[in-house]
Amino acid sequence: MQIELIATASEDSAYLPRLGLGILASLTPPEDEVIYSDDVVQPFNIERDVKDVDLVGISVDSKTARRAYDIADAYRRKGKRVVLGGIHPTACPDEALQHADAVVLSEAEDLWPEVLRDFKAKQLKPIYKGALPDLAGRPKPRRDIFRSKKYIPFQVVQTMRGCPYPCEFCSVSTQNGVTMRFRPADEVLAELRTLGKLILFADDNVMIHRAYSKELFTKMIPLQKHWIGQCSLAAVKRIENVKLMAESGCKALFIGFESVDEETVKYTGKRQNKPSQYKEVMQMLHEHGISTWGSFVFGFDTDDSEVFDRTVEFGVNMQLTMALYAILTPYPGTALYTRLRNERRLTDERWWLRRDHDAGSPYFVPKLMSREKLREGWVRAWTSFYSVPNILKRWKVTRQSSWIQTLGFLPLNIMQNRLAHIKIAGGQQRFRSGVQIVDDSPPPDAPLPIDVVDSRLETIRSRPDAKDQRRVLPVVG
User: Fold this and answer.
1) Is residue 133 packed enough to be buried (19+ CB in 10 Å), middle (13-18) or exposed (0-12)?
2) Looking only at Cα atoms, what is the longest distance across the chain?
3) What secondary structure does DSSP assign to 109-158, as a single string?
4) Which of 280, 311, 414, 418 sits 20 to 30 Å CA-CA off 174?
5) Cβ proximity of 13 and 44 under 8 Å
């Protein structure tokens, strides 16, 4: 039979092959044909691109949920069977099942062969759920399905899953659990030997287990790879870890600073982050030729209206190669979502059903500023950090600098300058693909405009009987 695996796109999707779908392709019997469609590199046209296949599998996260549901509905109208899986269906299975014949919860390796057997026997079940799989002895992902030249020129590799850190806003544990699971280092090395020089580790933290990472990176040194990945600040505080990563070929790290304020990182549960140590950490990374892409989040209950300028100033002074600024987002299944819902601070409890979910963000009422001020500050941070003067201030090249810092810095930052002005400030959707998506059918529970909500809140809070925020917030929704 023919099976189409679809990777749907959101505004935040990167030009990376969807590794999970590559693994499902490798688990599909060889007599079955796999067709791979990537909405990032070739935007899916619902009128023209619905194919005459036997089964469709779609990977869904919260920011691609509306897009995934639209595509799934189009296939089902043609009488095709659809299976949805990924982090969002795991958090919202009942919702996902309204758009699918079957929903796979959590990780799919052990469940996919069962799904295919049941489909062929015409006994497809609505829900498939199993234990988190062991990562040893797993087949490598099929990379022949990732043909597009638009993908960044790095081969994606995964070594572990799970995260023990209790970050309130993070959804990693929803999908991968709080217990860390690792692929045997020798299996990772065997895969690396079959790949090119440029590697991207898709792990949430490449140095989360020092003994495992030490074994892997020490054995990687003779391979002479150039790699990038994500890492926590807890790991790069140690000079021996930074040195080993550099020797194994690390050229850049994506680091979740989240905030430059001590009170905020404590409040969010990221106690491994110590803003007082950021400068020392950055100096170590620069001295070892490792570029840094810093991630920051705005909208925590401890954030005030001055946090935006403080954060940009930090990034410029620390000479970050790039920075990502996000508005705090209440993802379903997270502790943050549950808390804000209980406090009646959500302005749209199913924000992910909007086709242009970025337009109405933030989808909660901040504590120390208005929603409008939060959005304005977020836009200002992007445009300020990627302004031409600040790009030039951050561009530092030394004898230790990697090629990412010397050759890649300006192209990357020019691209981000364009993103900041066209997408962040201008609001153009899917601007990289030149596709304009019009949200012509918002859900009936769409949130009120930011200015209307804030005006109502201020009016109510000024009443003599408005004693605290929790009593007045129910009117927001």
Assistant:
1) middle
2) 72
3) TTTHHHHHHHHHTT---SEE--PPPP-TTPPPP--TT---TTS-S-EEE-
4) 311
5) no
Which residue segment(s) compose the domain that 98 sits in? 2-128
Judge whether 15 and 362 are in contact, CB under 8 Å: no
Are 164 and 107 part of one and the same domain? no
* 336 neighbors 169 (Cβ within 8 angstroms): yes
Residues of the chain with pLDDT under 50: 431-477
Is 35 within 8 Å of 4 (Cβ atoms)?
Answer: yes
Q: How far apart are CA 293 and CA 322, in angstroms?
A: 5
Phi, psi of 187, rounded to the nearest 5 degrees: -70, -40
Q: How far apart are CA 225 and CA 217, in angstroms?
A: 10
First and final CA of the chain: distance in angstroms? 47
Structure tokens at 48: 């023209």
Dihedral-angle region of residue 40 (phi above 0 means left; psi in -120 to 50 means alpha; beta otherwise): alpha
The answer as to whether 141 is a domain residue is: no
Neighbours of 46 (CB within 10 A): 13
Give the separation between CA 297 and CA 308, rounded to whole angstroms.
10
Helix/strand/coil for 453? helix
Helices (H) and strands (E) in the chain, counts: 20, 14
pLDDT in the model for residue 448? 43
Same domain, 253 and 398: yes
Q: Are residues 185 and 230 in the same domain?
A: yes
DSSP 321: S
> Which residues have C-beta within 8 Å of that of residue 280, sequence separation ≥ 6?
237
Pairwise CA distance, residues 453 & 456, whole Å: 5
d(CA 282, CA 193): 31
Q: Name the token pair of 55.
A: 């089964």
d(CA 137, CA 120): 26
> In this structure, what token pair is assigned to residue 8?
């749907």
Predicted pLDDT of residue 455 = 47
Look up the CATH number of the domain holding residue 302.
3.80.30.20
Residue 85: strand, helix, or coil: strand
Q: How far is residue 311's CA from residue 275's CA, in Å, rounded to a whole number? A: 11
**pLDDT score at 429:** 67
Dist CA 207 CA 81 (whole Å): 41
Beta 160-161 vs 155-157: how paired, if at all? unpaired
For the beta carbon of residue 215, count every other beta carbon within 10 angstroms: 17
Find out whether the peptide bond into 411 is cis, omega within 30 degrees of 0. no
